[in-house]
Each structure stands twice: as structure tokens, then as C-alpha cells.
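Hello again,

I reread your note about wanting to compare the complex against the isolated chains. To keep things tidy I'm splitting this into two emails, and this first one only covers the full assembly. Below are the input lines as submitted, including protein chains and any nucleic acid or small-molecule components. They are followed by the predicted structure of everything together. The single-chain runs will come separately.
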Amino acid sequence: MLRVIVRRLLQLVVTLIALSALIFIWLRNLPGGPVEALLGERATPERRALLTKALGYDQPILVQYGKFMQRVVTGDFGNSIRTGDPVTEVISRAFPATIELALAAMIIAVGLGVPLGYLAARWRGRSLDNLTIAGTLLGISIPIFFLGYLLKDVFTQNIHWFPPSGRLTTGLDNTNVTGFFVLDGLLTREFDASADALWHLILPAITLATIPLAVIVRITRASVLDVLNEDYVRTAEAKGLRHRTIRGRHILRNALLPVVTTIGLQTGALLSGAVLTEKVYNWGGIGTLITDSISGGRDYPVLQAIILLAALVFVVVNLLVDLSYAFIDPRVRVR
Amino acid sequence: MSLLDVRDLSVVFQRRGERPFTAVDKVSFTVEPGQTVGLVGESGCGKSVTSLAIMGLLPKRGNKVTGEVLFEGTDLLKLRPDDMRDRRGREISMIFQDPLSSLNPVIPIGIQVAEVLERHQGRDRKQALRESRELLDAVGIPDPQRRLTEYPHQISGGMRQRALIAIALACKPRLLIADEPTTALDVTIQAQILTLLKQLVDETGTALVMITHDLGVVAGLCDTVNVLYGGKVVERERRHELFAHARHPYTHGLLNSVPRLDSPRGERLHAIRGSVADNIPWVEGCAFAPRCDNVVDACLEGPPPLEPTATGGDLRCNNPVSEEVAVR
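Full-complex prediction:
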């Protein structure tokens, strides 16, 4: 087991190094850039050359990359070109917001998706099943930004159930402990802040949850249908076991294996979905930071760090998924 | 009163947009306490469906079960699903063909045995596991303490079937239905499992319904044999009578097609011609008629009735094999 973890972590390092090189080259080949953004279109060539030199962008790309990597290994990602703040600081401010949003979305997707998928399979061909299938098709097809603006319009403009944007009502102060506002409120006993944060969280979380929810419902349904045909479920029935024992111990435990894999793969969908969702609801997370850093003049240092972070999150989550497999399925353990 | 009295049991599969298919057609047979009864026939003759119908394990939709399954006088088909659930595994148990797929791959063997005791005998986990170890020991699994925490893929095929037998007999049921319990096992293991089953039913007084296509299994185990063809019982005899004087051409053909060590060299193995696909529906005549060597005109005029024979059995045939031919 330990050897597997070590091997996977080494793979992770290689992946990240390769990815960092790709991003580095790719970003610098995009049209536009920080110099244009900082100086504007009408700057003289001399001033441009001066700033390009000051930022070090006149050097060969490999040299730039080497310097970048040199600093990265010491944990220094440089400063944001846009604001001048250290990149690590900028990101650590935004990161918890995105994690909070993504976790809430995943809780909705799994908490709703697994039972729905199970019920659809159990009542295969009935109206609940048909309704679920139609619903998931819609959920997968509908673009996030469209759904986001639709929900926002209906639930904040027409019926005022939820706040339209942000993470907290303006004027309400909370103590920042972890950066997860709902959790912070609970930890510091500022329950009004916690409730307010949760209230702000619901619509964006639902928006972000749609695609993973639809995928999880489908995978769960298909997987439960497979397991229902297994001989060991018939054996469990022949033993006269209670429904809930058969459901929990014999059906779901086996059926959830593919679902766990899906959860890992959906992390990618969540990260990309977060960019759109955060834009729609003005959620101050990584997604907003990405869009701002691109439109605000190609903030190379920030963008590089974010993309690496996203890749790191994706790979680590999938590593955890693989490891959790060993705990769920004893057949994996022996290998 | 018989322990199990199956009367006119029929199972019709009916899927939307398809013609109904009668898998089991008015099958009747009885099992006395402690007796071993065989249900014999080739694939598709309805033997497994019969057993699933008795257990109440057929899918909820897509089939219609009629007739009566009297277990100690109670019609199991009329029980509420929860009452049937209380009896399954406690009064009637079943073991299946493929021991690997019949055990849950992600649950330790010990729990899979113990959960029956927890469900039906009200044991707590600790007590149930202790009894499970004794059960595994009783079915001849070596080092039972270690097996409790092992998973099905870690033990051999023979041991898996032994574990399933331990599960089935955990609550000392009065009836055990074994659906081809040795088919998926090596020949050497088959004999061990059959010996074990015989020993256990003798010790506990459990009645056994043995479902098989293997006449060798029948010969070693069953008191009475029901031969099924096309969903109907075509011949019922006590074991010795059947092997000495099989009268139905189908049974006769089955017995003749068993290879024998003492047959003359170079003699071709006897086979029943055609396959189940050649069957005609029972309403039009005898389902076996297209494959039968003894076919007469009456066979195509309607289903022959099941009639008692001089030897105390039952036979459904217009032109049975004469005894001289049957003795080999």
C-alpha cells in the first residue's frame, strides 16, 4: 500500500513538472500580455521595451522557465502583475471559497444522486425512472452559465428566496478562521454569519451540482441495475435478510464502486464549472480569479499557479479515490 | 402431511410485446420430512424456475405463478412477502450453482454466515460469528477461524460451496433446495460436496430437493426422482425403479446416454436426437414427440396424461419403453 502511494506521488511530481512547462510556454504565446495591459495601447516602444526588460520577459523562454521553477521549489510563485500582492496570498484568499462551493455542490450531487439512482434502478421502467432519466439528460445538456442566470433570475429577482450574489450580506462581518464561511460561523459561534453564508451558498452550489448530479444518478442507476442481477443478491434474498440489509450491505456497497470513481473524475467538471458559476454569482473564488487574471492583462504568475493548483487538486482527489477503493473492495487489496 | 406439497405449480413468463412462455406447467410433487427428492431434466426444462417459485425468488414483474406450494400445510404462494422473508433461510434454504458469484465479493465469509443467524436467531454479532466458526468447521472447511475474516476470492471453489452450505443450514431448516450445487465444481470436489450434503441432511433430518441434470448425482443421493421435460413432470419413480426400469423414452434416453466403462469397445454413445428447441407446445401433443423414437399417432393429438404405474410411480407417455429394453 505504501509503495503504491509513493509511486503515485512520484508520478504526480512528474505530471506537475510537465504541466508547468506546458502552461508556461502556452501562456506566453497567447496574444496580448501584461505589458500591453499595464501600459495601454498607446505606449511608446521604448517604454514597452523598458517594462518588458524589467519584468524579465525579454529573456529566452527557457531561461524564464528555469528562474520560475527555481523560485517555485522554494514556494515562491512571484507577485501578481495586476495587484502586486504575492501570488500565494492571492490564491490562499480565493481558494477556500471555491473549495466551499465545490464541496457543497458535491454534497448535493452525491446526497441526492445516489438515492435517486438507486430508486430509479429499483423502479426500472416506471414513471420515477423515466422522469429521472429525462431529468439527468436535461442536467447534462444545460449549459452552466445559462442555468446559473436562470436560477438567479427566478429565485432572486422574481421570488426573493436567495441573495443574488456574493458570499455574505454586505455589512455583516465574520471572523475568518478557515476561509469556509459556513464553517467559520459555526467555529466562532457567529451563527447568524454561518446561516447567512449558507443562504448565499445554496444557489451557486445547486448550479454547480447539476452536471455531477446528473452523471452520478446515471452511473448509480446503471451500476445498481448490474448488481441487482448478481447471484449474491439472490443469495441474500434466499437468506431472508431484511430489505435494508440487502440494500446497504449487499447492493449499495458493490454498486458504489463505479460511483466513487466517477466522483473523482467529476472533480475536473467541478473545477471548470466553478469558473462559470463564480462569475454568475460573483463568488470570490479561484474561478473569479482566473477570469480576472485573463481579462485583466494575462497575469502570468497568478494563472500559472492556479492551473498548477487545479491539476494538483484533480490528481490528489483521484489518488484518494484509488486508495479508498482498496478499503471498499478487498479484491483490489491483494494486487 | 407432507413437508412440501407442490400442486399444479405453473409459472408463465409474460413480457410486454412477447408471447407468454410457460416455463413450468402444472408441476406436482411432494417431499416427505427427511426425504431427498430429485428434480431432473436438461437445461430449460423448468427445474430452476420451479425452485425459485417455491422460494418466492422469481422477479416481481413479468411472470405469473399459479397453483399451490404447501409447506407444512401453509400455501407459501399466498404468504405476505414479509412473512415469506421470515421463513426463507430459516425454514427453507437454498444453495445455488456458482459458488463464486453467489457469495458477495466485498464481505468477509464470516459476516455472510453470521448475518443469517443475526436475522433469524436474534444473535448478536459476536455470538453469531462464534457459531459461524462452528458451522464452517462442520462443513469441513479447514482453519475456520481464519476463514471468518477472509473474502470469497481468497478461498477455493469447493470451500466456497461448503460456505454456502453452511449458510443454508445455519438455522437448521426443514427443507433445503440445492440447484445444481456441483455443476460449477471440479469432478473430484463434486463427490466431496455430495457426500457432505448427504451426511448433513442425514444428521439434521433436513429434507432435500436436489435439482440436477446429472443422473450420477441422482443415483447417489435421491429417494425419489421427478423427471421434467418441457415444464412438465414426465416420469416419477423411486430411485431404484427408475434406474432399473426407466419407462419414459426421455428418461430412457438420458440413462442410455451416460457413458459406461463396461460397454463394448467401439460402441457409439447413445444420444437423444434433436434439442429442446424442437419441442412442440404441450397443448398440441407430447412436447418430446419430435425427438422420440417411440412416437405414435396419439402423441400428436394432445398431451398424454400423467398416470400411475404398477411400480408406484407416475408416467406421462402413450407408448412407454418396454421393460426388456430398459434393462441394460
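For quick reference: The first helix of chain A runs from residue 2 to 28.

B.
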